[in-house]
């Protein structure tokens, strides 16, 4: 079956323009003018008019938690939520599943667990923890897209944090394997006038003071130094502190291969507006002040920050301490990958971004980061992955529309403009219209990325 998808607002070659995209099988075969005369009766034509035809979103930071903690989330629910949000590719973090993905056996168990459950394509990271250096090259050979470590307690004992010595031992192996090394960049140090002086754990300010910007700033300086010394591709995940941006910019200006992401919640919310007791906003690093948020947006615009991701990190309502509102006890993690495109679009549009800039930050740049050459843009030869996006429709996020496992999310109640109408994965509609019920996604292992 050949299909021609037409839109007067297609994102092609980093610009928005009228186009018709010819899909044959799983691939994009040709890009034609919007009004091209096909002259063939065996081509299905779908004309979206003024709806935007965008590359499928690539979210390279998602905690799916299966196997082992599937009551928190799972492959079926997470990828169904992704499909509803125009996301066609996820990359799963090596925690909070059990076993954690620090061995080939654990990776194999994860790939087995996702069999026939994926609504979108899904790649995997491995983990670097103290003592597993011998497992890193086998994991690279088995197809992981990169590796993740923590410089601070991860929240689960199976995934302990690394030291500088552990990082130095891992870097040559990962550099040789050509995969990025991702770091949760917080270095714990004594907190001055922090949470110990505050007694009310329901106050968001108590939690914010417990994880100061200095922890991030110090960790980013360490990462910048190591990247400069080794010329290895190091990556700072979920940057929250805008103070660290000058370090990152100066390091990159020297040609050092360090990259950085931020998250939709850091770009959307600010500490001044988070209600006390609303633990659905808790994440690590924390959501910071309004001026900090605006600096993050400026760095998206100027390219200091490479891309934005969801860091979808759900848990059960009990672990989120919904009943107590205790920020210091609640699990730290934001749930809401389904709304990533809409949430980012709202913030970006308010700051003068166009759709091509939105797509670059959510699709092209993250796909390039993990080496997925067939993903992230609408171009001949690439996978036919699309999000059909109505930039004008307004909607309110309600619990009943959520496809991920638990309806715990700070986005509930948010009024948004811009809604995903359809999602296509490798030439097949997987959400909206006549989308089938059967999951169509596949595991992505590095050997198959080209």
State the secondary-structure class: alpha/beta
Q: Any idea of the CATH class of the largest domain?
A: Alpha Beta
Average pLDDT: 96
Could you spell the SSE succession in H and E letters? EEEEEEHEHEEHEHEHHEHEHHEHHEEE
Count the strands? Answer: 17
| The CATH superfamily title of the largest domain | Metal-dependent hydrolases
The dominant shape is globular
CATH topology of the largest domain: TIM Barrel
End-to-end span in angstroms? 24 Å
Q: How would you portray this structure in words?
A:
- With 450 residues, the protein is an alpha/beta fold.
- The chain has two domains: 2-52 and 383-391 and 414-448, Urease, subunit C, domain 1; 55-369, TIM Barrel, CATH 3.20.20.
- The protein has helices at 75-84, 104-113, 133-142, 164-177, 204-210, 213-230, 245-253, 264-268, 290-302, 340-350, 355-369; strands at 2-12, 15-24, 27-32, 43-47, 52-55, 57-62, 87-92, 121-124, 126-127, 147-150, 181-184, 234-236, 258-263, 307-309, 386-396, 415-425, 428-431.
- Helix 7 links the parallel strand 12 (234-236) and strand 13.
- Helix 3 (133-142) packs parallel to helix 4 (164-177).
- The two termini are 24 Å apart.
């Amino acid at each position: 079956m050949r299909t021609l998808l037409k839109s007067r607002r297609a994102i092609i070659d980093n610009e928005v323009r009228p186009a018709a995209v010819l899909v044959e099988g799983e691939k994009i075969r040709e890009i034609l003018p919007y009004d091209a005369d096909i002259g063939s009766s065996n081509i299905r034509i779908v004309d979206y008019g003024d709806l935007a035809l965008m590359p499928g979103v690539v979210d390279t930071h998602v905690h799916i938690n299966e196997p082992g903690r599937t009551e928190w989330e799972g492959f079926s629910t997470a990828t169904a939520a992704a499909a509803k949000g125009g996301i066609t590719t996820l990359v799963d973090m090596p925690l909070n599943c059990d076993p954690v993905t620090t061995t080939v056996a654990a990776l194999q168990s994860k790939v087995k667990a996702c069999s026939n459950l994926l609504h979108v394509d899904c790649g995997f990271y491995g983990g670097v923890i103290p003592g597993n250096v011998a497992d890193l090259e086998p994991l690279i050979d088995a197809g992981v897209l990169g590796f993740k470590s923590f410089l601070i307690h991860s929240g689960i004992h199976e995934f302990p944090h690394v030291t500088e010595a552990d990082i130095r031992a891992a870097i040559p192996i990962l550099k040789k394997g050509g995969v990025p090394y991702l770091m949760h960049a917080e270095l714990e140090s004594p907190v001055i006038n922090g949470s110990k002086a505050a007694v009310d754990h329901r106050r968001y300010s108590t939690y914010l003071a417990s994880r100061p910007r200095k922890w991030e700033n110090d960790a980013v300086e360490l990462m910048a130094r190591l990247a400069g010394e080794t010329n290895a591709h190091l990556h700072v995940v979920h940057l929250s502190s805008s103070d660290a941006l000058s370090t990152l910019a100066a390091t990159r200006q020297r040609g050092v291969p360090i990259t950085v992401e931020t998250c939709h919640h850091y770009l959307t919310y600010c500490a001044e507006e988070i209600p006390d007791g609303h633990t659905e906003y808790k994440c690590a690093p924390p959501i910071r002040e309004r001026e900090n948020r605006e600096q993050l947006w400026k760095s998206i615009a100027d390219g200091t920050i490479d891309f934005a991701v969801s860091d979808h990190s759900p848990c059960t309502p009990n672990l989120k301490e919904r009943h107590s509102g205790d920020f210091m006890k609640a699990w730290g993690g934001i749930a809401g990958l389904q709304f990533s495109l809409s949430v980012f679009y709202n913030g970006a549009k308010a700051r003068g971004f166009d759709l091509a800039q939105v797509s670059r930050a959510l699709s092209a740049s993250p796909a390039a980061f993990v080496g997925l050459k067939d993903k992230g843009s609408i171009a001949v030869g690439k996978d036919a992955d699309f999000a059909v996006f109505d930039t004008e429709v307004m909607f309110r996020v309600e619990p009943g529309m959520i496809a991920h496992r638990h309806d715990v999310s700070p986005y509930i109640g948010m009024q948004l403009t811009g809604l995903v109408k359809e999602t296509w994965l490798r030439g097949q509609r997987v959400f909206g219209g006549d989308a089938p019920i059967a999951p169509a996604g596949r595991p992505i292992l590095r050997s198959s990325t080209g």
